[in-house]
Amino acid sequence: MSDQNASAGRPPSVAQALSRLPLSIWILLAGMLVNRLGNFLQIYLVLYLTHEGFSASRAALALGAYGVGSVLGVLFGGTAGDRFGHGRTIAVSMALSGLLVLGIVTLHNLPAIVVLAAVIGMTAQAYRPASSALLVERTPADHHVMVFAVYRMAFNLGTTCGPLLGALLISRSYHLMFYIDAVTSLLFAVLAAVTVRGDREHPAERPADTGSRSYAAVLRDRPYVLFMLALFLNAVVYIQHTSALPLQLRQDGHSTTVYAALLSLNAAVVICLELLATSYVQKLPGRLAVALGVGLVGVGMNMYAIGSAVALYVVATLVWTAGEMIGTPTASAYPGQVAPPALRGRYIAAAAVPMQIGYAVGPVLGVAVWQWSPAGVWWLCGLLTVLAVGAVLVGMTGPREPERAPDPAADRPGPAAGLPGQEDPATA
């Protein structure tokens, strides 16, 4: 590293982190932003199919298929990245996604559309563990939390602005929306292919896959399983802002405008302040940062039970937004840091799955509890948060030993030695 702060191992400032990002990471971030700006399929698929004459319930089947495919795609992407290289996985998944999206406009048979939506979900999400793995592998360890905050900013900017662009395109033509979606995916594929040129992870140089180099090895890592449990519980709590919160606002006599304003407040604060907050948060021990973030998300949700004044809703939203900013960058960086090198993609993918399940289960659970007792859902959030914080404090054991440069002497046979590099990642 180029200065005393970096050499001393102190976390970088925002400016320092940005100035030291390698070109390949800038390309990856640019590709992420472009891809999210053009990612319309999941948002507008139901509207498109109903516009084409399908009923809302039948159109929802295609959206559900896309969701199932997305979860499978994350798992497949983790495996593919570990085996074939993370840059290559991003390039292939985005290229396939872009080409397959074009097929939606040519199909008029619902079963075919449902199948294609599932396949698109798989290909469109396979890039995610690979992109996170590249961030870990191509940046210094003390930059990881800040780099993931930058990554989240690009993701959130694209996710916030993309639907607005999609609505503009739909006003002209639904087909135009799919064409732009395909173009942005293919552009991301090209940008990812550029990063492959500097990718040191050639398949031949990777440890051979064995039975221990699989998702079974991830599940044998008991502390990490607790960390995944915490992510699931936190997702169930966090997603209540899309399910129980609008119901609570309506019961308290507030309009949809208030709900939209609260969501806009969350998005604006995260986009504008998360990098600044991360410059301080990254100095905390990882488990403390994540536990604090998870705890504040739960406290914020719990505060919705206090009263019906708009000011209380604003304060509660700011509290769980602060928790999101404090905990998420560290929690995003942790899987890649703790993973054995040969399993990095799988560890990252395994952490994404419980969150997706939590986002799917959370609204159903939240609405059911709210119908039984409106205040009960917020107290349930508090209980789940206590369990999640405990799982974080026990499960986050800290990054494993960093990778060491190959030792030439290791190539010489020695007594009681196995093949060079044959370390069981499950016990690393």
UniProtKB/TrEMBL annotation:
Bias (Basic and acidic residues): 400-410
Principal location listed in the UniProt entry: membrane
Superkingdom of origin organism: Bacteria
PROSITE patterns (alphabetical): MFS (PS50850)
Entry's localization field: Cell membrane
SUPFAM superfamilies cross-referenced by the UniProt entry: MFS general substrate transporter (SSF103473)
Transmembrane spans: 23-47, 59-79, 99-124, 145-170, 176-196, 223-239, 259-281, 288-306, 347-370, 376-396
Stretch list, region Disordered: 399-428
Membrane topology field: Multi-pass membrane protein
Pfam family, one: MFS_1
Keyword Cytoplasm annotated: no
Keywords on record: Cell membrane, Membrane, Transmembrane, Transmembrane helix, Transport
UniProt keyword annotation of Repeat present: no
Major facilitator superfamily (MFS) profile domain boundaries: 23-400
Name listed for the protein in its UniProt record: MFS transporter
Lineage: Bacteria, Bacillati, Actinomycetota, Actinomycetes, Kitasatosporales
